[in-house]
Amino acid sequence: MPTLQLQVNGELRQLSPAPANLAAVIEQLGHHPRLVVVEFNGLILTPDRWDSQTVRDGDTLEIVTIVGGGS
């Protein structure tokens, strides 16, 4: 089964089976697409681009979770 090795928030992660695109990576990592901002290889990508963005070994992701709150 093919695997994919990525740097995610500073940690080396290996995903198996290898996801085909960024949307599948986000899902496989367990993130809700509406609650994260994703930087892909230094560029912030909006969710409408995740399906068409291919991922390869060595790509770098920074995933920031949006947290609501208030006082």
List the topology elements.
Blueprint lengths: L3 E5 L2 E5 L6 H7 L7 E5 L2 E3 L14 E6 L6
Parallel strand pairs: 1-5
Antiparallel strand pairs: 1-2, 3-4, 3-5
Name the CATH superfamily assignment: Beta-grasp domain
Q: Characterize the main sheet.
A: 5 strands, mixed
Query: Could you say which structural class the secondary elements and strand pairing correspond to?
Result: mainly beta
Residue stretches low in confidence (pLDDT < 50, at least 5 long) are none
The number of helical elements comes to 1
Features of the shown structure:
5-stranded mixed beta sheet; mainly beta; Ubiquitin-like (UB roll); 71 residues
Kindly describe this structure.
- It is built from one helix and five strands; from the N terminus they run ββαβββ.
- It is mostly beta strands.
- It has a single domain (4-65), classed as Beta-grasp domain (Ubiquitin-like (UB roll), Roll), CATH 3.10.20.30.
- A five-stranded mixed beta sheet has the order 2-1-5-3-4, with no helix packed on it.
- The chain is globular and about 50 Å long.
